[in-house]
Amino acid sequence: MSTYKFYEQVNKNFDKAAKYTRFDKGILAQIKICNTVYHVTFPVRRDDGSIEVVEGWRVEHSHHKLPTKGGIRYSHKVDEDETMALAALMTYKCAIVDVPFGGAKGGIKISTREYSENELERITRRYTYELIKKGFIGPGVDVPAPDYGTGAREMGWILDTYRQMKDDLNAEACVTGKPIQQGGIRGRTEATGRGVYFGIREACNNKKDMDRIGLSTGIDGKTFVVQGLGNVGYHASKYMTEAGAKLVGVAEIEGSIYDENGIDLEKLMEYRKDTGSIIGFENTKELKDRDNALTAECDILIPAALESQITGDNAAEVKAKIIAEAANGPTTADAHDILKERGALILPDTYLNAGGVVVSYFEWLKDIQHVRYGRLSKRFDETSLKKILRVIENISDRDFTDAELADLARGAGEYDLVDSGLEETMITAYEQIAEVREKHNLNDLRTAAFVGAIDKIGIMYEQMGIFP
Ligand code: NAD
């Protein structure tokens, strides 16, 4: 178990960055503090009839924008410190990618593997009831989403519970990451991993950044190791391999494997589904212990499991030139300094895994608008494009094939628009962070990202005044 206090780690990064901003101590203290912390315990009936007390939290870190937003985590490691740290990261993350929400996070201290689906449903519904009762959920108040240990199924239960208890026209916007049939959005499941890929691609396409670390530009041909093959780790790896990168190492709960010739991701997922483990997968060698994958030879390391994985104890052994923080807080502050000393490029969590909240924002907008993206424009765009293509045919001696026509005259549907909005956001945010880095001569994207976030939030507080 980690001895690092996660919230303290986040605040260390904040303090380092705050020196580059112009705000007075009071404003900085207000930005940094967690505004509200709700701790709840409630009884749950197990399938065998026994009663168990379950513990949960919801932390709203910043109300400078509403609603607040952040995932709900189910893990036996959940505690108040972790939830506060994750809520704070959400505030900075939203500011970095220009999503107009304050940060929040929730957590329930349970190991999901020890509960049946029915028990998990009872726990989720009761937790939601507690949030409703205390005003910690609502489309304009606080909007949860999936995180470690939760997914669309849990978000569906949350919505259903909320809808049972509230006459709210915008009920579907009370939570994001829902199944499509319940107001979810196409592209949300893979959004965080997809955003991780876009972020890594941006960095790899930046010649200056690649020159600094001695790598060629582009993702194609680069090797990577992933820790955690869950929602974020799997999808990030999927898009990385599709873009030509080579997956050479994987760490999961049961251990870690390595193959310098490349690991077939889809086959590995199948193998794990069948055997319950990644160990023994074709041609791979098993590493001595689970964390050895973090220090294995590769160009890019993608920690996509939990916080405090790269620490002062193992950072010096990490060989990757790019640390792509798909998880929240995977690198402790002392490890960050060791990695930077060696000249590694760290793509910070506050930027890199923001794809989830970006697409959650699109989902929330869809739900309060009560209309699917593309519904009004798709057919119109297709008809207009076809007209243009016909004109081109008439003035040239070239007729398009049916396949070309279908491809060139395709109107954007919901998935296309979401994906393009996510890509645009990740590109723009990288440019903004890189600009702050140059302005302050920082050579550190994490500090630059924090400086950018503090600047945006600080201005909000200055303009808002303090009520009453
Ligand atoms: P998940 O539950 O889908 O997957 C996590 C995976 O990590 C699981 O397969 C688990 O077995 C594995 N794991 C746990 N401990 C490990 C260890 N010590 N070594 C190797 N593997 C380990 O969770 P997720 O949603 O993919 O979240 C992963 C991280 O990404 C978390 O830090 C989360 O806060 C962050 N994140 C998630 C989202 C999202 O949309 N889901 C958004 C932003 C950030």
List the helices and strands and how they pair.
Layout: H1 6-18, H2 25-32, E1 36-45, E2 51-60, E3 68-74, H3 80-96, E4 102-108, H4 117-133, E5 142-146, H5 152-165, H6 191-205, H7 207-213, E6 223-227, H8 231-242, E7 246-252, E8 255-258, H9 265-275, E9 285-286, E10 300-303, E11 322-324, H10 333-341, E12 345-347, H11 349-352, H12 355-369, H13 378-395, H14 402-408, H15 414-439, H16 445-464
Parallel strand pairs: 3-4, 3-5, 6-7, 6-10, 10-11, 11-12
Antiparallel strand pairs: 1-2, 2-4, 7-8, 8-9
Whole-number count of domains: 2
Number of DSSP helical runs:
16
CATH superfamily descriptor of the largest domain = NAD(P)-binding Rossmann-like Domain
The N- to C-terminal Cα distance equals 44 Å
Bound molecules: nicotinamide-adenine-dinucleotide
Unreliable residue stretches: none
Question: Can you offer a commentary on this structure?
Answer:
There is one protein chain. By secondary structure, this protein is of the alpha/beta class. The protein folds into two domains: 36-182, 3-Layer(aba) Sandwich (Rossmann fold); 188-377 and 412-445, NAD(P)-binding Rossmann-like Domain (Rossmann fold, 3-Layer(aba) Sandwich). The protein contains 16 helices and twelve strands. The strands form two sheets. A seven-stranded mixed sheet has the order 9-8-7-6-10-11-12, sandwiched between helices. Helix 1 (6-18) packs parallel to helix 3 (80-96). The mean pLDDT is 96. It binds nicotinamide-adenine-dinucleotide. Nicotinamide-adenine-dinucleotide binds at residues 71, 146-149, 192, 227-233, 251-253, 290, 304-306, 326-328, 353, 356.
